[in-house]
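Before a colleague's protein record goes any further, I have to sign it off. What it holds is a sequence and that sequence's fold in C-alpha cell form. Would you go through it and say whether the fold makes sense for this chain? The record follows directly below this note.
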Amino acid sequence: MRSTSQRRGPRLWPVGGAVATATLAGVLLGAGSAHAVTLREALSQTYRGSPTLNAQRAGVRATDENVPIARAGLMPKAYLSGNVGRTWANAKLGGAFGRVNQQAYPRGYSVNVTQPLFDGFRTPNSIKQAKAGILSARDTLNNTEQTVLFDAVQAYMNVLRDFALWNLQRNNVNLLSETLNQTQERFNVGEVTRTDIAQAQSRLASARAALISAEAQLKSSRAVYEQVIGSPPGKLYPAHPVDGLLPRSLDSALATALKVHPAFLAALHTVDVDAYQVKIAEGALLPSANITASAGQDWDTGTQAKQINSASVVASLTVPIYQGGSEYAAVRKAKETLGQARIQADLIRDQVREGVVSAWGSLEGARAEIAADQAAVDAAKLAANGVREQVKVGQNTTLDLLNSEQDLLNAQVALIGAQRDRVVASYGVLQAIGQLSAAKLGLEVALYSPKVHYRQVHDKWFGLRTPEGK
C-alpha cells in the first residue's frame, strides 16, 4: 500500500500538454508489457537483487564468524598424535662379546588436551572487539542499502526525464517541420524571403541534432537503469516526492542524522574496535596460565619394557619479562590507530552534517525552481501563441516565431529537469539523514536481518557448512 507521503507533490511530467509518459514502452522498448512499473516496485526489485547489496550482506556474514574465532582463545584444544617407525643399532662390545645388532619397531599414540585459564584478558577483549566489528559491518550494510536505493531512484527518474526530453525534442522537430512548410508556402506567394526559409531550415537541422542527442542520452539512462535495478525499463509510472517521511525543519534533520546515520554509527563502532585492540595489545604484557592433560601408550621402544603407559596433568604459568620490545610497539601502534579512528569519526560526523545541509538546500531549491519554471512555461507558451498570430498578419518575422518557440522549448526542458530534481532531492534528504531504507519506505519485500545469521554462528563449536541465515 502506498504511503500518504508518496501521493503528495508534483508528478512527472505535466509540461504544457507536450509530454506523455504512458507511451514509453510502446514507443521505445516495444516490450508489449501491460504492467507498468512504479518507483516502489523498482526499489523493491533493487533491494532483492542488487549484487552490491548481496555482496555486502555476505561480508557481514563473514564478519559474524569473528566472534567464534575470538571465543576459541579460551576454549579447550585437543590433539591426537601417533607414531610408528623402525630403529636399529650395531654395538661393539668389549672382550669376547664381539658385536651386537639390535632392531626395534617403536609405535605409540598420545592424546593431549590444553585448557587456557588466563591469557591477559585478550580473549574477552577480542570477543568484545569482534562484536563491535559486527555492529560496524551492519551499519556499513545499512549505508550501502541507502546508496543502492538512491542510485535506483536516480536511475528511474533519469529514464522518465530523458524520455520526456526525447519526446519534447521529437515534438519540436515536428513543429519546426510544419513551420518550414508554412514558410515555404508564404515564400511562394511572396510574403517572405529566402532568408526566412534559411532560418527555418537552420532551426530544423539543429532540432534534429538535438533529437539524436536526446535519444542517445535516453539509451544511456536505460542502460544504467538495467544495471542498477536489474531489468530493462518498461512502462514507468510517474513518481512522487517522499516529503511525508522527511523532518519538518533543517535542525530536526541534523539531529536525526547525527543519531541514526549508519555511516556515522559505523565510524563510532570502529572506534570501539580500535579501543579493544589497545587492550588486546596490552594483554600480551600480562601473565598467562594453562593446564595441559595428556595420556598415551608406546610399544617396543627399544628398552626392556615392551609397553609403556603414561599420563600427566600439568599446570603452567608464563610471566613475560622482555621479548624484544615488539609488544610495547604493538600497544603504541594500537593507540595511534585509535586516535586515527576518533579523528575519522569526527570527519564523518562533519560530512554527515554537510550532507544534510546540502540535501536540504537542494530540496528547497527544487521546490522553488518548479514554481519558477512552470511560470516560465506558461509565459513562453502565451508569448509563442501571440507571436504566431502576429506572424500571420505580418507584425512579426519568421525569426521572431522561431525564437519564441525555442524559448518555450527551453522553458519546458528546464521544468522537466526541475520536476526530476524535486523527486530525487526528497530521497536525497532521506538518505542524508540516514533513513533511506526498505523498512522506512515500506517496500513490499522480505527485509534482510543480519541478526539471523549471527545467532546461528556466534556460539558454534564446530561445523563446516555455512548456515542458511541469508
Summary: The CA atoms of residues 179 and 200 lie 7 Å apart. The radius of gyration is 38 Å. The longest strand covers residues 107-118. The chain has a mean pLDDT of 87.
